[in-house]
């Protein structure tokens, strides 16, 4: 009872911790903050020069309507007072300034003809690109926190509502900050349905395949208790919720329920032998406890390889998996076994009260003839042990073929495809891009001793022209140079003092966009909608071309240039992640092998589970290639996941095999008993794991859905390998070792006999 009270207190504590979880979808979920890549992008660009804009897009038949422009001006004036807003840029400002020059009145004219003349003469295309669209930009700092962005977005929405736009116009609030906030909300709202679908699917599977025990649905609430503990730990340890880490919970339900099923299955087996309830608990923990604990450790070692990923959200995924499997194990061992103990006692008392022999009744259920699943597993084992070499040759050849074609599986590098394609915020952002054109940039950070040096400004001007005129996917440039030339009659001043004088006359807001202190400057090269037009690989090629141009048209001596930007960051990260997937898998294999060797101090027990799962890794690559699937940042972690899940099945089977051998069974008999007695529990846990992963397919995030689809295939392959490949591998190697030991004994006996004969003859 004390255990259940402690569990209840931990639930209350976990619910408190869960409230501390924060959603995260920013650059720091893709890039390690300590890396040079992040330092260049975040410290040199985002914090010094970058701005973001919440864009108010107006669609309508006539955007020169005075009532519309007056409403836009009211919204403009309201948004300017929002804390954290740097500036607000809108068509109303241009029209009021132009009207002030013409009439002396700084207001929106009532005459639509005057407005149209002003628009034709003065309006930038970025504010009114056509006759049906107008844009207002609420500019904020590029490094603004998620909380700050959310507050500014909320106030911007309020300013639009306050302005009372005419009813014939459509008002859309979009931009990167609005999209990121909507993305966080979507991730948060999709978590509950995923867990709910996972639980429902598992209930169905448990009811169908775990019917040989009482309280067949009990493993599900036990593992959900472990998930609650994991949520609490996640909040207290400040692990953020990302589009990858949210997939950890259905995964953990699939993994964690195996522990609950194994303990449940074994204690029912012990109770079926007529054991006293307390004795059954002891025997259960004695026999299945170490096996499940070893499986847990090896699963954890498989997941450790995730920490080699350069992507923080993959590392967070690994942290959640490690914490989660420990929580689910503790829940199964302490709470699960305790609950079954009390349920059994209550069941016994109830039957005694009804004057029935509870033990006899229980035995009638537990000692029934083998069912269909028992017979199927027995026949599969008999077949695999009859034709071991045929199975191993086919498995090995298909594995090698899969590993070969795995290198040809394409990579999905368009990050916009990772999010729900029908998400309104994404559609609004795409609409904005289709009207205004792309606004993606390569950002060149220039470090110098003197950013007022005329020679440096001349180089920036020459290099900008060279790139815009000579590179087809560079459409424009922006820097401090264009402003200096505009303020100096179209020319770059001849002395640094003249340049500094012009700097002093510039508004701070304008100057801060391009220079910082006296030693850093930024040159922005507009690459349009390069993410869609070129893809990340094309952006990387363009970035490399600019690097080559910098060698040919180098900056003045002493000045250095660093190329950064969001597109560059994403390419480097996704390229490193997907290209390093095989290394991650190999490291996982090494960790698992070393862990098994340290635990068992037996090469056979260390080698057998690893070789079985290595075959599954090869099969997985082949299936991905032949089904046309693509690697994403999540599916690149599948090697570690297969090792973690599949090794558990193999270890549990191996533990039961050697338990039966210790009782005097031959290798074939021991494997048959292990397959049948452990088979039901492994099939039950395996299928519930498959259906737990299947819930991910319902995710609105294509990256998560794709991950769920592939993991369903891979866990199924791991189950198949456990019953088809693992038995002949273990039996062949074990028999080979026994033969070697027997030969050594025989040789030793012969040697001893020879020495005895020699002594007797002398």
Let me know the number of strands: 9
Q: Outline the low-pLDDT stretches.
A: 355-368
Q: How many H/I helical runs?
A: 28
Helix content: 55-70%
Distance between the termini: 76 Å
Which shape, going by the Cα principal axes? elongated
Q: What is the radius of gyration?
A: 34 Å
Largest sheet: 5 strands, antiparallel
Output the structural class: alpha+beta
What's the number of structural domains?
A: 3
How large a portion of the residues is in β-strands, by DSSP E? Answer: 5-15%
On the 0-100 scale, what is the average pLDDT? 82
Structure explained in plain terms:
68% of the residues lie in helices and 7% in strands. It has 762 residues and is α+β, with helices and mostly antiparallel strands. The protein folds into three domains: 31-174, no CATH class; 182-408 and 580-741, no CATH class; 424-535, no CATH class. The strands form two sheets. Strands 5, 6, 7, 8 and 9 form a five-stranded antiparallel β-sheet that branches. Helix 23 runs parallel beside helix 25 (638-662), helix 24 (603-626) packs antiparallel against helix 28 (726-761) and helix 25 runs antiparallel to helix 26. The longest helix is centred in the middle third of the chain and has 42 residues, at 312-353. It is elongated, with a radius of gyration of 34 Å.
Secondary-structure blueprint:
Elements (H helix, E strand, L loop, with lengths): L1 H17 L17 H11 L4 E9 L6 H15 L4 E5 L1 H13 L8 H11 L10 E9 L4 H18 L6 E5 L1 H34 L9 H18 L11 H25 L4 H28 L7 H42 L4 H9 L5 H15 L1 H19 L17 H13 L3 E8 L6 H17 L5 E3 L1 H8 L8 H10 L2 H4 L3 E2 L3 E9 L1 H4 L1 H18 L7 E5 L1 H14 L1 H20 L2 H24 L11 H25 L4 H28 L7 H23 L1 H36 L1
Antiparallel strand pairs: 1-3, 1-4, 2-3, 5-8, 5-9, 6-8, 7-8
Helix pairs in contact: 1-8, 3-6, 4-5, 7-9, 7-26, 8-9, 8-11, 9-10, 9-11, 9-26, 10-11, 10-23, 10-25, 13-26, 14-24, 21-22, 23-24, 23-25, 24-25, 24-27, 24-28, 25-26, 25-27, 26-27, 26-28
